[in-house]
Write a structure and sequence with these properties.
This protein is α/β, with parallel strands linked by helices. The longest helix is centred in the middle third of the chain and has 16 residues.
C-alpha cells in the first residue's frame, strides 16, 4: 500500500480500457468497504489528472489490437498504481519508448504526484533538457557508483568545479554523459 512500482514494460490487459484498468486496480487494492460511488469518483479523478479522458473508453491494445498510444499506456500504468495513494512511487525507465511530447507530459504528471505529497523516484537515461530541469534532486551513477547526489541545479557547478564546465545552452545530462563518464 505504501510503495507503488511501475515497470518499464506495462502488463495491462490489451482488451481493457484505461477506465477499466484503473477501476479494476482500485477494486482489488482498496478496502472492500470502499463504496462503489467512491471508486467511480476515484477513477474519474485519475483519468482527469492523467489526461486520459479522451481515450478512457478505448482499448489499451497491443501487438495485434490497435489501441491507445504509448504515452497513454504509460499514464494508465501509473494510474493503476496511484489508486492506493502510495507514499512512494518508483518507476523503471518511465520515458523509455515515448516520443518527446509524451515523455514531457508523463513527467508533468509525475511532478503533480510529487507535489501532492508522494515521493517519486525513477531511473532515466539522458533525459531531454525540459525533463532534466523539472527534477528536484538526482543521483547520478556510473558503473554502480554515485558520481553526484543533490539538487539538479547544482550539477553544472559541481562538475565545473571538477574541471568539466557545462557549455552554455547545453543540456547538463548530455554534457555529463559525453564529458565525465
Amino acid at each position: 500500500k505504501h510503495i507503488a512500482f511501475v515497470a518499464q514494460d506495462d502488463s495491462l490487459q490489451v482488451t481493457a480500457t484505461p477506465r477499466e484498468a484503473i477501476y479494476f486496480s482500485a477494486k482489488l487494492r482498496l478496502p472492500r468497504s470502499t463504496p462503489e460511488k467512491n471508486l467511480e469518483r476515484l477513477v474519474i479523478r485519475m483519468l482527469d489528472e492523467l489526461g486520459l479522458n479522451h481515450c478512457a473508453d478505448t482499448m489499451v491494445g497491443g501487438a495485434l489490437i490497435k489501441g491507445i498510444s504509448g504515452g497513454e499506456r504509460k499514464r494508465t500504468s501509473v494510474g493503476v498504481e496511484l489508486v492506493v495513494k502510495p507514499a512512494m512511487v518508483f518507476l523503471d525507465e518511465p520515458t523509455s519508448g515515448l516520443d518527446s511530447y509524451s515523455a514531457v507530459q508523463l513527467c508533468q504528471v509525475l511532478k503533480k504526484v510529487a507535489n501532492a505529497g508522494s515521493s517519486v523516484l525513477f531511473t532515466i537515461h539522458q533525459p531531454a533538457s525540459e525533463i532534466f530541469n523539472s527534477f528536484d534532486r538526482m543521483i547520478l551513477m556510473n558503473k554502480g557508483r554515485v558520481m553526484f547526489q543533490g539538487p539538479v541545479g547544482d550539477v553544472p557547478n559541481y562538475f565545473g568545479e571538477r574541471g568539466f564546465p557545462n557549455p552554455p545552452n547545453y543540456n547538463p545530462a548530455d554534457w555529463v554523459m559525453v564529458s565525465v563518464v
